[in-house]
Amino acid sequence: MERVLVKICGLMRPEDARAAADAGADLVGFVFVPGTPRALDPEAVSWIGGVSGVETVGVFRDQPLEWILELRRALDLDWVQVHGSEPEAYVDRLGPRLLRRVPLTDPVDWPFVRNLGRHPRRPRQDVYQQEEAPLQMGIWPYSMPQPAA
User: Fold this and answer.
1) How far is it, in rounded angstroms, from Cα 54 to Cα 6?
2) Is the per-residue pLDDT at 65 higher than 70?
3) CA–CA gap between residue 4 and residue 11 (Å, rounded)
4) Which of 58, 100, 116, 130 has a CA 20 to 30 Å removed from the CA of 122?
5) Does the pLDDT of residue 129 top 60, yes or no?
6) Parallel, antiparallel, or unpaired for β 27-31 and 79-82?
7) What is the mean pLDDT of residues 77-104?
């Protein structure tokens, strides 16, 4: 059985990141999407680079690639998670430690989902999100059962 990867997202304070790490989280997420309830000010979160015992994830949506790369470097983020309609060109530049939201629509675009796993620099996981229930999210391994093509 594959191990479940646990990510606690939307953290806003160092003590919350520490509590998540102490509770056994694998990843802690920090939102850098302006106008969202848990958006952080990149100028005020230098403490993220000092988070230990857990890997850090910066969450972005439809932001310029160069800004994402600069923030990843400045905050020493372990992962980048994109939640918008970022073009495939972002994949090569962001590298293998990338999580990508894939909307689950009816019907699911399984050829698109399968293709994600074929990219040589793509990580083993993508984030799948149901459009009707945006808070119900999970990390699904590519090996999960999928309908036949």
Assistant:
1) 10
2) yes
3) 20
4) 130
5) no
6) unpaired
7) 84
Percent helix / strand / coil, the chain, rounded to 5 = 30, 25, 50
Residue ranges per domain, the chain? Answer: 7-141
Say which residue the tokens 């990508």 belong to.
Answer: 100
If you search the block for the tokens 């459009």, which residue do you land on? Answer: 131
Q: Which amino acid is at 102?
A: V
Query: For residue 85, how many other CB atoms are within 10 A of its CB?
Result: 9
Angstrom distance (rounded) from CA 146 to CA 149: 9
Q: Which of 29-33, 42-46, 73-77, 124-128 has the lowest mean pLDDT?
A: 124-128
Structure tokens of 146? 């999928």
For 52-115, give the DSSP string: -SSEEEEEESS--HHHHHHHHHHHT-SEEEE-S---THHHHHH-SSEEEEEEE-SS--HHHHHH
The mean pLDDT of the chain is 79
Domain 7-141 has CATH 3.20.20.70: yes
Residues paired with residue 103 on neighbouring β-strands, in sequence order = 129
Distance between CA 3 and CA 27 in Å, rounded? 14
